[in-house]
Amino acid sequence: SSSKSHLLQTWYRSNQPRNMIENRMFEEEPDVVDLAKESTTFPTSQALDPDDVVYEPRSSRLLVRGLGENDMDEDDEDCESSARLLGMSFMNRSGAHRSLSSPYTRQGAPRSCARPSARTLVVCMLFLVIVASMTMVLYFLPGCTFTRSGCPKTNTTIPFEKVYPVSTSGEVFPWAQLRLPRSIRPLSYDLTLNPDLDSMTFTGRTIIHMSVLHNTKCIVLHSAYLNITKATFKARGVTVLEYKPREQIAVAFTEVLKTGQDCVLTLEYSANLSHTYDGFYNSSYTEKDGSKRVLAATQFEPLSARKAFPCFDAPDFKATFLIRIRRKPNHLSLSNMPKAKTTQLPNDVIEDEFEKTSVNMSTYLVAFIVANFTHISRNVSETQVSVYSVPEKWEHTDYALDTGCKLLEFYNGFFEINYPLKKLDLVAIPDFLAGAMENWGLITFRETSLLVGKQSSNLEKQVVASVIAHELAHQWFGNLVTMRWWNDLWLNEGFATYMQYMSLQTVFPQLDIGNLFLAVRFRALDKDALNSSHAVSTEVNKPEQVEEMFDSVSYEKGASILLMLNASLPGDQQFRKGIIQYLKEFSGLNTDTNDLWNSLTQVSAQHPNVSEMMSSWTSQKGFPLVTVSRKGGQVTLTQEHFRLTSDNATQTSSLWIIPVTYVTDNCSVAPECRRTFYLKTKSGKTQKSVKWVKVNYRNTGFYITHYEDGGWAALIDALSHNVSVLTHEDRASLVHNMFALSRLGRVSFHQVLHLLKYMSNETHTSPVTEALLQLGVIYRLLDKRQEHRLVARMKSYILHQFGSLMDKQTWEEEDSVSKQELRSALLGMACSLNEEKCISQSRALFKQYVESNGTSRIPGDLQQVVFTVAAQSNEDWATLLTMYGQATYDAEKRKMLRGLASTQDARLIVWVLKAGLRGDVIQTQELPLVISTVCNGFTGYLFVWDFIQENWDSLIEKFPVGSFAIQTIIKSATSHFSTQAHLDQVQGFFYSLRERGSQMRSVQEALETIRLNQRWMEKNLATLEKWL
């Protein structure tokens, strides 16, 4: 888990909601029942299942005595809570040992030993009381065996005395954990859903066929916001208990359900369609004629299938599904499987029944939609591929269909396992929070992630192709083979991210996806350098922790370490053979990280143990800093943890097994120049008589490199004579690493500027875009600190350094994706610095576009620059808003929105923020984008911070606590702060939230980032003035 600063530790001790809950239990907790005292409420003879071994008293309204195998995280709190059971409060908040002798003892005159003094009696009595107290503690507190550091060591010799939570009806709820018992396994679900799009409600019936794995007297499953109206078991009515804090329901029996028995539970219920973006939710869109259309769609990952039907809502409870949807004749319905039959029911209602799933599925992959959509289809490899959209946008679906078909064929061949379903639908949903969702056979997308116009640029097509490639990869990684629990989410997301880039490089080389993959690896390194990061595979115990796993560590770092592994394996097919074996061995099953490494180890006999190497990358957070030093012909490589924030609590002897790749001045560009050295210990040596060494060839390794003993100077000198002496990936990695080392304090900012001198000769996209991004971050920090002189100098420096490249950019259509990326970055920077030529050219293009009523096209990669410049004029902002309301092409519409949000007019900024929250003119799904765009400008970033504080409850009502949307909002609003005053404000606000978000990892990341910004500014402000 993330280490905390002393300040955070102090606050957690005094303010954690879990403490509040524990403390309340001793004061006023009417709905916690002690079974030892209340045996009549729940018979003591009723035993739970044999797998009932781990109890989680925190974050719930229950208390467990006799803590066993899984003790709480913060040991002193555990002891304190247990001590309070005995009416003792001998431990203070910090867990420090207090002196047990009286602080008021004085030295008296010597007395006769024949008769003990009063003081001696008091001391003796005090000693006896202490001994008796400690004896009681050791007797009654089996969860706490005392050690020097507190009580981390568990005592498993005394049995549990279990205390269960209380259900909404006041009866005891027979389960006390977040994760469900293992005594029941669902075999199949028979679901009937009847949504009413007029009243925005739905009714449902769920029939679950189950198998009993262990003797048990209860069935526990998930249900959230569902009103259970009827429940039957073996044709008899049964009572359903509900425990809302864990979104669980239970049916308890007087007789034991025997191991091996099959049984059926039927539940009927009603509910409201969700008004957020998860569960079974309602959505709407407006057609060109102004008429409003409504629809209902689903988003179940990670924990929201339970909001649509009662179920065992965890990845490893796989089952088959037969689904029926009732609808009005003017709608169609879609689900994971093809439609089997349609039945006309009374009251003009139609029931569509879909085929039973031919595969076992996790509940989060179930999906259904009721809407008025149109589609186009094509058959590929015995699968019907279709793309659905609202009728007005069907002409934007061709590219998605073509891309989907080509990628499906590629994956069928690459994995040597054919896609197992008869159909694959790609559906564009008007209101959709995520980029897309990999529901098996019914993949849902944002419209911007699926629909592209016929005249769209390749850069826009790259976005759509990337998302389709990612979601199709999930049909194997995630759907066919699924992680056992959310702690290993990276097995789904890291693999799908890696495969999206790998597949596009093969199937669509013209999209030039390599630059994008390189850039996301850099961003993953930036995030993982923070102390608030987490291991790729990390413990997950609470719903908000599940949400927080959907971050760049699970996605981009996961993909990066797979790239590193692939690059280190001999030959170009070893990695592929390993993942084919993994997919075939675990098809239809659930896995953990070790299963993957074991499969790869089996097929990689020539490679050092894959499992041992890769475990060092998944089991600990962060990554190594490899330092290269040269003495004569000897090169020494040393590794240490690259940690931007260092404190005593987090100092560890972290070691990675690093496949260090390198090239030298003798041979540095071609793949055959690459040499590999496995660094398994703190340092290693190799003999090389060369002018220079460049480590991490083409940046395939997930680490940062520092060059000592003139190493940097030699590389910079080589680049100044010949840019092409290194690959463009290596040049970009030198730029990224240098800025990262400046942030760490290993190199001065003067050295950064020294490296960037070669940029006047740079022509490739990735080194330039990386340099512009890094300089842009510093420029905005200086701007927001109102360091006006430095801002002016930084502006002059950037325009001088990159001015010749900026001047070379054209404003006409450009086919090359790489050139589009370069042009977009250079002109975006030029216009943001108010470079005169860029501003006038942008205004001219916008005027031409408006006067032609949209028939004159702005090149896709230049639209963002043009719309952003236009929005700086109030008149053009109003024109842009009108165009935004009328636009139907979603990629262009999103760029217009970013333009609107980039205004520096305070009143317009407030309007944009409020409109995004309301969701009328601007969809609420776009609010994170609006906030991040507003924060880039000087005028808006403080408005956003006020807006978030005032509207926090509304935000977490729309976006779940810990979700990627909330992570984005927090990061955008705080990453530009660099002063103590702002640090205090951010800390004070988020700590005041308590259970409404204070413990999110993204909050710790925000605080750490502000401190790092503050540290960098304090260290570099004076020298910046000198060097610039």
From TrEMBL:
InterPro entries in the cross-refs: Aminopeptidase_N-like_N, Aminopeptidase_N-like_N_sf, ERAP1-like_C_dom, M1_APN-typ, Peptidase_M1, Peptidase_M1_aminopeptidases, Peptidase_M1_dom, Peptidase_M4/M1_CTD_sf
CC cofactor: Zn(2+)
Site positions (Transition state stabilizer): 555
Gene Ontology MF: a single term: zinc ion binding
Binding sites annotated in the UniProt record for Zn(2+): 470, 474, 493
Keywords: Aminopeptidase, Glycoprotein, Hydrolase, Membrane, Metal-binding, Metalloprotease, Protease, Signal-anchor, Transmembrane, Transmembrane helix, Zinc
Ranges where the Peptidase M1 membrane alanine aminopeptidase domain occurs: 399-617
Active site, UniProt feature: 471 (proton acceptor)
Cofactor note: Binds 1 zinc ion per subunit.
Compartment list: Endomembrane system
Domain spans labelled Aminopeptidase N-like N-terminal: 186-365
ERAP1-like C-terminal domain mapped to chain residues: 692-1011
Membrane topology: Single-pass type II membrane protein
Transmembrane parts of this sequence: 121-141
Any one GO CC term of the record: cytoplasm
Family under the similarity heading: Belongs to the peptidase M1 family.
Protein name stated in the entry: Leucyl/cystinyl aminopeptidase
